[in-house]
What does this fold into?
Amino acid sequence: MPWDAQAADAVVAKYPSPRSAILPLLWLGQNSDGHVTPETVERVADRLGLNISDVESVLSFYTMFRTSPPARHRLQICRSLACAMKGAEEILEHIAAATGVAAGEQSADGGFSVEVVECIAACDHAPAYLCDERMGGPLSPQKALRLLRGEGGDEQ
Amino acid sequence: MSSNPPAQSPAGARPAVDGPRPAAPAVSPPPPATVTCTIDGKPYTFPRGTLIVNAVRQVGHPIPYYCYHQKLAPVGACRVCMVSVLGAPLTRPGMGPIVTTGCTTPVFEGLEIETMSEAAKLARKQVLQFLLINHPLDCPVCDKGGECDLQDFTLGYGPGVSEFAERKILRRKADDLGPFLVLDQERCILCQRCVRYENEVTGEQNLVLKERGDRTVIDTGRGEPYSGYFSGNNTELCPVGALTSRTYRFKARPWDVRPVATVCQGCAVGCNATVNLRGDRIVRLLLRDNPQTDGGWLCDRGRYGFGHTTAPARLDRPLIKRNGELVAASWEDAVSAAAAGLRQGAAVLGGGRLTDEEALLLSQLVRVGLKTNDVDWRVGYQTFAAPEAVGMQGAQIGDIDGADLVLLCDTSLLEEAPVVEIRLRRSAGRNTSVIDLGPVRNFRHGPSRRIACAPEDLPARIAALTPDFQAAKSPLIVWDGRGGEALAEAIRGLGARVLVPAEFNNARGAEIAGLVPDALPGYHRLDEAAVFSKAWGAAVPSATGRHTQAILAATGGDVQALYLVGANPLRTFPDGALAAAALDRVGFLVVQDLFLTEAAHRADVVLPALGPLEKEGHVTNMSGVRQAVRRIVSGPSGAKADGEIFRLLAAALGATLADVPAEVASEPVRLRLPAGSASTPPGEGLRLIVRPALFAGGGTAAHDPNFDPVRGGTVVRLHPEDAAELQLAEGDAVHLQSGGTALRAVVSKDGGVARGYAVLAAHVAGVQGLGPRVRVAPARAEVTVG
Amino acid sequence: MIRRILTEGIDEFDMTRLDVYRSRGGYQALAKALRTMSPDDVADEVKTSGLRGRGGAGVAASFKWSTLPADGRPRYLILNGDESEPGSFSGRMLIQKNPHMIIEGALLSAYACRMARVFIYLRGEFYEGAEIMRRAVEEARAAGFIGERILGTDFSQEVVVHRGAGAYICGEETAIMESLEGKRGHPRTKPPFPTAAGLYGMPTVINNVETIANVAPIVANGGAWFAAIGPEKSPGTKVCSVSGRVRRPGNYEIEMGTPLRELIEEHAGGLEPGHELKFILPAGASSALIQPKNLDVSLDYDSLGAIRSMLGSAGMLVCDERDCAVHVAYLGARFYHHESCGKCTPCREGTGWTERVLHRMEHGLGRSGDTRRLEELCRGIGGRKCLCLLGDFSVTYLQSALANFHDEFEAHEHGGPCPVTAALEVSVR
Ligand SMILES: Cc1cc2nc3c(=O)[nH]c(=O)nc-3n(C[C@H](O)[C@H](O)[C@H](O)COP(=O)(O)O)c2cc1C
Ligand code: SF4
Ligand code: FES
It folds into this structure.
């Protein structure tokens, strides 16, 4: 759903208090622009009658919101217990060696980024990952490189 | 113009309720008002609801705390106020004591508290160790040194050595956060006092938490400067050196300052404060709570407005005009020159910045020395100071707390009585409904019903509010006295108490002292002049004098000389053209002030006066509360207190001023008000309105170096759609033209301004010279400003 | 005997489709309750069933429900689908594969407790889960199970699917309310407990999605039927998530009281060939480890409590001889450091300190005294000194590892290679 006043109103209407719509509205902004833009923050604040600083504070608490444009493909590799035990770190090293892009970085052409995340509740597929918005696993170094090229992987 | 729908609360979280409603609550008998518990083995009784942290302190077993603060709701974040407790329901029968936070636990019947159990001591010690691991330990260069809770509690309850041997997290240091605050994120212990203050007290949320975990920092929303008027309170709430004052930076240690109690004279609220002196210089102002006036807070104008006491531009000797130049003169020469010039046909303007005692002396000087009733303190927009003087019932500042309906009648508490606005913000979120009436939105930090209307329509709009006022239990009206009799009549019709913020800090004292053309001290009628003549030992004229407008109009005619006492009508009088013409025409001009104002430049004699922190006496606040003020610093050696100058002038005029006020008993007179504002005829351009702004102008603020960072250029506020029509963007430079004059200003778009208006701050140079309508044009090419 | 209640049919049928769910008896419990039972009758069945919360603490659902004050204020039900404990992923499966059972349970619970609204809070990373759940809610609404006058009765109910955005702490019951109110996920002080003053200050019940999913079968078959399954004090089934060094990681619904050994060796296929069990974390990263000697423990709340561990969310992380106790501790510490909300000093500062020490030890930079320091850190952070249990969670495994594998920690104090890894290399050679 793209951000527009009507979509925002529909979200706000679901809650007894408008403020509850902060996260859904920030999601709406991120989904339509790729990241949460300053304008989205301003619109959310305005729509919900909040201070911009208030929205910024909430925004910065939740790790899934981005405030800069994402790469075309985003590979998020879980490195929590089960996934680390099954070689998540080694895959990260392999990616870095093969592409020069380390965890937390973006490729120079903006084609892909590699991130680490904490447990995504897919330990049965360890090492698990989120590629763009799809959860999957187990990840192998080869599959990781395919995913970064946008060639898709298996679905969990 | 129509009334807008009620505004959203900025805090937003007034939850709607929904869904089905189960059965009504059962009524149970009220629990007893006190509870008895033991602290370190001894029994004590406390009012129900007393938090452990306060209970143990009251009986002399204090425990450390950071996040807790008397003026804020408990949050239980720092975890240092640990005590051992025993008693159901906190502990189950058979179970031993547990440690818990004293700041979030109220005492209850049978509770056993141990403040110095091994478990509690260890827990506190560990928390203190944790708090220091990422702290920079830069105490030698920290302004908080000596009054820092982190230092003190670590000494009292912390470990002797830290076990921490890892890399510290580095953060932003010594960051200027707007005009007055310095933020040091590394020193912050995340007690959230500032954040809660911003949330619960100002509602502005200038400071918020960003990020999370041990990456959490205190910051403004986007790293922008702190923009509110109440930033300084944060420096006192902050228990460590994370938020400090720019003005106090590296100025002193707490043990080499001397505290002196004072009353702020920045505006007519009269907040209580403590001045800290190092040697004979003021280094800072601190809170000195007075529930009746300030409610425990100061605004930044009050807190930081002491720079004028040492400003290089202060006048420190009298000046006399010779061959068109003001040259230094002795007090003897200046006073006799002034007296000579004022001897015939003089009128007096000003007095709203004097002490009560000085105002009374001036009142006498005018009557028995200058032998006239041509005197008026009202040199700005305000038409009266005491509601009782115009047939209204006055209110106390604290009445806002209990009011269920507050009408802001074209008046901004924030700009005119800032600390009082805090009260309104807090109660507006709860039981008070606010009506914000007038051409500009004045209440922006709480829910309100906004009714936009032209100034001339105010009386009719107010009359229409009669049903609301009849339905209210304890309604209150806030009106700064702008306008005239028609508006006053409408307000009287609502029958509510009235609170009047003042344009000059002691307007009320001046008015009581009789610095008005139609009353003598104590609002006595002029036909009682004989009684005053007797008390003062000289004839007191009984003919009604002229008010400011008439005096200004009569200069060059039978007003041959003008004596301006702490007054600069060129900046304050709404009809700036008249003021300018009047000062040009007048035969002889004496100006008594702290700085060489525009008016002083035109004077024949300039008399340097001492400022508010430099003399003693009393001042009367906007609610009529009299408070003593003391001499805290000496001021320029060549300046004299206004009262002393009045005595010298009187002597030179051959009069003596009595020390005692006249004792007269009679019905107070009712002051005459001007008829009221006529509507502005339609014409080209936008309607200009001029409204107070906290840091604009003022007798001391305009010249205070501490306020240099907040004195930007002249700003004109326009409705965004008007701005769009004129193809103007935020920050564009424009010329405001009216008649032959023009003023350069910068555009600020403001949805709170009604359409068709241009709003400027009062008391700023050049503003009063503009007419009732202005054309707003982009200032592309440089135009010579008239 | 394998009895499946929550996962019955989910491998064979697309239960996300309303028609499929209904064809297998779905929404009949709701119909039965609305037509033939009063709200109190439904609550009574749940009470009889003895259903305990599946989110962690194992509090009886009926106990929470019964503490709602009857004071006329609106009440709210929050389904906790934040599922962020490392090692727990049973909720993910139920959300993705059996959403209608969760919704039906939510409607029944809301009916029983006279809720004003139901919120299903799903962790932000469940993109697909949220889509599936939203679609299921819309389908149910279209079919008249959600909205005004459900099934033509007087009962009306709204269900809102709400997505988080990356914060483990929002699974905590007061943080989830803050988050739902549009704030940072900072836990609140208790008391007041959520049932007294929760979401928007109103009485609120927070239950795990799996807890709620059980309500439909309970109402359909009767509380007594449920109470008869498994041990008396931990009735019903539990979907256990098994991960780590087993042959078949995955979710397995078992009857409560099943021995841990059966879950690991039969359902999950035993350890990877050639490897030996070292320890198990039964409730994700936040639980005390279980030693191989306790493998026959019965999987229920009380039996695991008796061996000083916990069933919690039953996220079983299985470790073998390749897993150094220090390494696992480091991975856990890194997680809790990342996820501490930052409100309480001990948790905020202590989790970071713990991670830094373990990071050094992991990377051959141990110092003498590190083991003792870790023990002290555990005491400084744990012991319920914080507002919520995240601080305690962060030290639970560590404390048990320090007690059971003290020598591994001490070995890491002296720089050098990890003895576990070194031993492995020797055996490989
Ligand atoms: C730090 C922390 C994280 C938690 N995360 C979850 C979670 O992801 N899912 C969950 O159901 N309960 C979680 N809980 C437990 C909840 O606070 C709460 O007890 C539970 O949702 C109640 O549901 P139940 O009674 O149905 O088990 C967490 C608790 C803590 C202290
Ligand atoms: S224990 Fe940790 S996660 Fe829980 S409230 Fe305190 S700081 Fe936040
Ligand atoms: S003062 Fe009690 S937790 Fe901070």
Q: What stands out?
A: Residues 198 and 738 of chain B are 41 Å apart (CA to CA). The first helix of chain B runs from residue 52 to 58.
